[in-house]
Amino acid sequence: MTAPGTTPGPEGSARATAALRALETVHAGLTAFAGWWPSDTTTDGRYRPRAAAAGQPIGSNTGWTTSFWSGQLWLAWQLTGDPRFRDAGLHQVADFAQRLEAAVDVDMHDLGFLYSLGCVLPWRLTGTEPGRAAGLAAADHLMARVLPSAGIVQAWGDASDPTQRGRTIIDSLMNMPLLYWASEQTGDPRYAQAAHRHTGQLRDHIVRSDGTTFHTFHWDPVTGEPLHGTTQQGLADDSCWARGQAWGIYGFALAYRHTGDQTFLAASARCADAFVDRLPEDHVPYWDLAFGTGSDQPRDSSAGAIAVGGLLELAASSGPGAAPEARRRAADALLDALVQDCAAPPGVAGGPLLAHGVYDMRSGTGVDEGNLWGDYFYLEALTRQALPEWVSPW
Ligand code: GLY
């Protein structure tokens, strides 16, 4: 396996070593996951075939996280040029296209995560037309979730579900790049307009005055009036779920890149300040930012990996609040802490890249385990450091 580029100095060399170790694990996954999709999180340190769901057998492409495995394959291809990673990623495009055609578990906003990495990225990197077509179909499907009264994209549940109508979540920001891309590709501004309006609603209501965020927020589905914030995966409605805050940093920074709207840059910067100010001394976030140095609560390494991506995205921006040097320092400290304290043993078939994540503490799901999105964003952060010319899939 070819070594990726390095940043000078001991930290740069530790990150390059970490990238090589992570690549060994992705390489082992080529064999370990042949013929089935891995579960959202590890169990006792190993990914298993995804549980049967949505009328599909065990190991099928369901849920919101499968594309993070595809994304790792594409990062591995970009880092090494090894065609085995590219071929495996291309093979998955047909599976994602089929999933949408058969409408298997697609009533969710996470179509952005799924199709940006599972189909649009392969199209960007190889020109595969089925990837482009599936990406555009996914964007149309996502548009059906827009609630015109409130100008939000409904996060969870069927669009006719009264318990979810009028509700969205901070994670949704990461699904908006699919809509910006669809406008670029088709020349139809409606996708980008929907994304811009949705992001503006989150800027105004999901971000609190101190820069922390609600996990979810509710609008009156008839009048569109903003109602109140709640949590699903955080400690409390008024606490700050660490991963949600990380989605906020990254999602608003991406919105700025796609729109040039400085208020989104400012929202990302406020989220970043609040996140970094609440990190413990060793920099690895607890699962909720209510917990600090000395707590015995579990960490969520995946929140840290996502935040690195957001901070580096901010560092690459220019405008008030971007503060590139401070963002880059914060990102480096966070990434180095992940490399030192959370990197999983390399080359383990079915093992994670990053240990010590939490999926959902409240339901006891994936606590102190690896997870697919943590692995993806960890490898993305290492790739950003190794390949300065790397182009974001978001
Ligand atoms: N987007 C779901 C999660 O972060 O758990």
Describe the model.
By secondary structure, the protein is mostly helical. The protein has one domain: Glycosyltransferase, CATH 1.50.10.10. Helices cover about 50% and strands about 5% of the residues. Strands 3-4-5 form a 3-stranded antiparallel beta sheet, with no helix packed on it. Bound molecules: glycine.
Summarize the structure.
This protein is mostly helical and 394 residues long. The protein has helices at 9-32, 66-80, 83-101, 111-126, 129-143, 177-186, 190-205, 242-259, 262-277, 301-315, 324-341, 372-386; strands spanning 146-147, 152-153, 167-169, 216-219, 226-230, 357-360, 365-369. The chain contains twelve helices and seven strands.
Strand content: 5-15%
Sheet with the most strands: spatial strand order: 3-4-5
E-strand count: 7
- Main sheet characteristics: 3 strands, antiparallel
- Catalogue the unreliable spans: none
Pairing-aware structural class of the strands and helices?
mainly alpha
